[in-house]
Design goal:
The complex is a heterodimer of chains A (about 300) and B (about 350).
Chain A: H1 2-11, H2 14-38, H3 46-64, H4 67-91, H5 96-119, E1 124-125, E2 135-136, H6 145-151, E3 154-155, H7 156-174, H8 176-186, H9 188-193, H10 198-225, E4 228-229, H11 236-246, H12 251-273, H13 281-310
Antiparallel strand pairs in A: 1-4, 2-3
Helix pairs in contact in A: 2-7, 2-10, 2-11, 2-12, 3-4, 3-5, 3-10, 3-11, 4-5, 4-10, 7-8, 7-12, 8-10, 11-12, 11-13, 12-13
Chain B: H1 4-32, H2 36-44, H3 51-76, H4 84-101, H5 107-136, H6 140-160, H7 195-212, H8 214-224, H9 226-231, H10 236-263, H11 274-284, H12 289-312, H13 319-331, H14 334-346
Classes of the chains: A mainly alpha (about 300), B mainly alpha (about 350).
Chain lengths: ~300, ~350
């Protein structure tokens, strides 16, 4: 019965739509994680950044009545906090892992604090008539049977996420900034001796990660659900972090990794809705984590072999 | 070895950080509360106002001390494990299985057996990222984070299916553990359970292990300088695996003590990030066992204070997060401590190393 349900959803392409929805926040956050990782400042605070953006986005969006303002505010807050991360890790010399960790605790606690102080609510905030990130209906294609369902009717943020992959490819591999970024991450002292301002580059890398995590968070509250639920990111930021490694630190790899993670969440969602399913949903939810560990082992083995042939 | 001056300087720096963090919390309360002084006094004084609250502080400190110890061990060997949460789940799960399903025997044998099973469970689960780190150089941050999810989901599966209590009232949990191996209350009329004794014992054991044994010495040496340790003839890889396993064992102990002291059976998602709180404790304590004890008590105090503040004023308890985050950031800010030391050296005193 589960297989029939899954097969039915594959045939009528609704699995594909669910996959795109669930993949988008992972992909966006992972692209953020990628840029900071390439710049040598691994950002494990993605989860906290997403939460803060999710809350800001729906709060500002519903009070101004404009989703654009909401999303921009969310991205702005997220970037501001990542500058704060830069201050603590680059200036005050706090380990970047600890800084990210602090941002995660802060994001979870502070959003609940604000929700209870501003709205007097403790669990979730769902303003009626809050503006949503619009769906993109493509004229003509919309009416073509299969193509319409594949391409039309998805949230604007899905498209932004896909375009961001190409933007990141361009930014990292085709611009002088990208060259600086990679050299700072690979060999900071060498980069410094060439006169590249390491700290400025690292601040900007963190800001990029804040911007993308901000988009991801804003999509979760203003696009996916139209509400803010405490701790609503539920580990998406950590998934994104795993995708960065799974994707072998390049945007296309990250796209593929996000698809794998999105697919697993989509399947788990379907299995959970089928009563008396013989497949435990826990094991399907587990797939991405196990895949990540296996991928890490695979890359490590490959590295080891390469080093062995060099020696 | 550090000179006593350096230790004073470090303790002074940490106290200054604690003070600044509290100050940040107070400032936020002043700006957002309509009754700031009620709120602050509830936060600072109410935890000590009743034996019930004091008992709660001790109970909250127990898992924090244990996970803090677990992480301080592994951090000292230079491995940045985030895996205490998962190890805690596996340990608690294995221990609870032993508590529920072992044949009837004297509680004097049964209880230690349950604790040992939990520690073995946690240690073996800790061995996975340890081996991956030592032999493949796979990032322990990612593997441990992923293994946390795997542990939580696996135990959730089992208590939803094979080991689900028949009379669980719709909750995903195991059968109740027999009353005679639960941790007893310390004093009548106080809710503190005997777990605090286990935690104190663990502090002493970890202290002796880290500072009085050769494995502790090797472990710290590997953490300080892995290359140097390897040239010095230390089997770095083995040391890393051992340190992660010790850490996992203590995390497993934290899990089962929480079960035997508070929950009385294994429940799905029971931990609510105790393993991550342990990271904060280890950071605040600078990985020192005695520091872990103090930091955990302080942290538990703030948590209980936040609760009494939520009852007694218009402030939600999440304000405590600001204090926690500032604490973590300020205590780990190397720049502040370097600055303090330079200032100290400049004022004409003997330079401090």
């Amino acid at each position: 019965m589960v297989w029939q349900t899954i097969w039915g959803q594959i045939v009528d392409l609704s699995l594909f739509a669910v996959l795109l929805r669930l993949m988008t926040p992972i992909l966006l956050a992972a692209l953020g994680g990628l840029i900071s990782d390439i710049g040598g400042v691994i950002n494990i605070g993605l989860e906290g950044l997403m939460l803060m953006s999710a809350f800001t986005s729906i709060a500002v969006g519903s009070s101004t009545g404009s989703w654009v303002v909401g999303v921009l505010a969310g991205v702005g807050v997220s970037m501001l906090v990542s500058y704060g991360m830069g201050f603590f890790s680059l200036k005050m010399k706090v380990d970047i892992i600890i800084t990210g960790f602090a941002v995660n605790i802060f994001g979870s606690g502070f959003t609940i604090f604000l929700m209870s102080k501003i709205y007097g609510l403790t669990g979730n905030y769902s303003p009626s008539g809050a503006p949503r990130i619009p769906l993109v209906k493509i004229p003509f294609i919309e009416d073509v049977p299969v193509l319409g369902k594949l391409l039309s009717g998805h949230s604007l943020m899905v498209w932004i996420a896909v375009l961001s992959v190409f933007f990141c490819l361009f930014l990292i591999y085709k611009t002088p900034y990208g060259v600086h970024l990679r050299s700072v991450g690979e060999a900071p002292y060498a980069a410094q001796s060439l006169g590249i301002p390491i700290k400025r580059i690292q601040y900007s890398a963190l800001a990029w990660s804040g911007a993308f995590a901000g988009l991801a968070g804003a999509f979760m509250s203003n696009g996916l659900t139209n509400m803010f639920v405490k701790d609503m990111t539920a580990g998406t930021g950590f998934l994104a972090l795993a995708v960065v490694l799974l994707g072998n630190r390049n945007p296309i790899g990250i796209l593929i990794g996000s698809i794998i993670f999105g697919l697993a969440s989509a399947l788990a969602t379907i299995v959970q809705t089928v009563p008396n399913s013989p497949i435990p949903s826990q094991f399907i939810q587990m797939i991405p984590y196990v895949v990540t560990i296996l991928a890490l082992v695979f890359f490590a083995l490959q590295n080891k072999r390469r080093l062995a042939t060099l020696a | 070895m550090k000179s006593s001056r350096a230790i004073y300087l470090e303790v002074g720096g940490i106290l200054a950080a604690v003070f600044t963090a509290l100050l940040c919390g107070f400032i936020v309360i002043l700006f957002t509360s309509s009754e700031p002084f009620t709120a602050i006094s509830a936060l600072l004084l109410d935890p000590l106002s009743s034996t019930f609250n004091i008992g709660t502080i001790l109970n909250k400190a127990v898992p924090l001390i244990l996970t803090g110890l677990a992480l301080s061990v592994v951090f000292q060997s230079g491995v940045f494990s985030m895996g205490a949460e998962g190890q805690l789940y596996i340990g608690a799960f294995v221990g609870a299985l032993a508590g529920v399903y072992l044949p009837v025997m004297s509680p004097w044998i049964h209880m230690p057996l349950v604790l040992i099973c939990a520690m073995i469970g946690g240690a073996l689960y800790g061995a996975i990222p340890g081996l991956l780190k030592a032999y493949l150089n796979a990032s322990e941050i990612v593997t441990t984070l992923m293994l946390n999810f795997v542990a939580i989901l696996t135990t959730s599966y089992f208590v939803n299916n094979q080991f689900k209590a028949a009379n669980g009232g719709g909750y995903a949990r195991m059968e109740n553990i027999s009353k005679d191996i639960l941790l007893p209350k310390l004093f009548p009329g106080m809710n503190a359970h005997a777990g605090i004794l286990i935690a104190l014992l663990a502090v002493v054991v970890v202290y002796l292990l880290m500072y009085k044994t050769s494995i502790g010495y090797e472990l710290r040496l590997v953490g300080k300088n892995g290359h140097f340790a390897r040239y010095g003839g230390i089997a770095t890889r083995k040391v890393i695996v051992v340190s992660v396993m010790i850490s996992g064992g203590i995390a497993g102990l934290a899990g089962i003590v929480e079960i035997l002291g508070i929950h009385q059976t294994f429940k799905e998602n029971f931990s609510a990030s105790l393993g991550f709180d342990g990271i904060i404790i280890a950071l605040l304590a600078r990985n020192h066992p005695i520091g872990v004890l103090i930091a955990a008590l302080f942290y538990a105090y703030i948590q209980v204070g936040a609760q009494t503040m939520q009852f007694g004023s218009d402030m939600p308890r999440e304000v405590a997060v600001i204090i926690q985050v500032m604490l973590v950031l300020l205590v780990s800010a190397q720049a502040i401590f370097t600055y303090l030391k330079q200032r100290y050296a400049k004022t004409g005193q003997k330079a401090v190393k």
